[in-house]
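Question: Hello, beginner here. Any chance you could explain the protein record under this note? Any guidance would be welcome.
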Amino acid sequence: MSQQGPILVVSTARRPPFAAALDAAKLFPVIETEWTDSARAVEQVQPAAVLAAPSATNEAELAELAARVAARQPYLPLVAVDPPAAIPDNVIPFFQSQDAQAQQGGIDRLVGRLRAALRIRSLHATVMRRLVPAAPMTLSQIDPARDATLLLVGRGGAYPALSVALGERIGVVGALSIEAAAKHLNARDIDGIVLGEGFSLRVIDAFLTVLTEDARFRNLPVVVTVGDLAPTYDLPNLEMISGDASNVVATALPLVRQHAFEAHLARTLKAIDANGLIDARTGLLTVEAFERDFASAVYQTQQRGGGLSVARFAFDPDHPRAQFDGARIISRLMRRMDFGAAQEDGSVVVVFTEADLKTAHTIARRLSSVMRHTSHGRRDTPSDPTVSVATLLPNDSAKSLRSRLQEDGRRVAS
């Protein structure tokens, strides 16, 4: 990819070793500065990315630098190499391996992480250029508890602690086996993986190898909390750490938020390509576009014959995150000829074209079964929707079909 600007390296007076890695990777120009000048250098240099080597004595300077970086558009990645325990939310951590044999792999991983972040910057710049009217869109607008989903894989004594600690900050999908984790990866949008204890090194190695070989997951944040594996996989956002659950959260959360921001940008670009007919947050149609297409689909079905059914997925109104996660699952799994939209009452309505009542029930059951395994928020509230299905009758209109769907939904809920 083309270089978007200089790379700003912030450290003490001594040149950090990773700066030489940037030269070797031809990520230039590389401009170095000390902590006292770092915030001003961001304004003067206009970098494409910032790499910092903070220590416990640089916490105040790191916080000021992070604030300057967060205010810039397009997205300016800030990567902290071997950061202290507490870092600002927009700082991406990177931990160097202490194993001499793995140091070259660590350098490659740092370069890969930087390249992945620069691709997000390019995507953000594209969205900003095409978005009309212009609107601010920053990483700080991504709330992990609302917009991101993390896959927690593991079993054993540490699993409950990880589940609680992560569930306080982000939507969590749990998997007690690698096979279950693979199903979740194929069925839903995942913004990161935490791999806990309960698996042999051979199983962990095989899982990471599969992620490496699948282009869909290569840039996915992955945090491994157990094992003695060297981070030599071609996964730029891989971290292998030890420690309590709070350390896992501190490492995973910035990487997951960055991935959720990338996914949001991709949906926004898709919405722009669709002339604003797609909701950038859910990936489904906007309410206005849905109502127009629904009325047209009912009319054409009545004129030409065939089948048409509608399903309504009603979620707990006290947990709005469940609706949006359900909408994203539906957007990912529904058939290409179907369409739907998130409604203001907290439900999601999906139209199944060329589908009779039996087929619609089968599709709706499959979609709802995937949603049941997602938990949200501090109390791990499951996304278990109430589903009602109605099919088009000969004397139906779009209004009467929707009215009957609402009535069926009330009867199911009661």
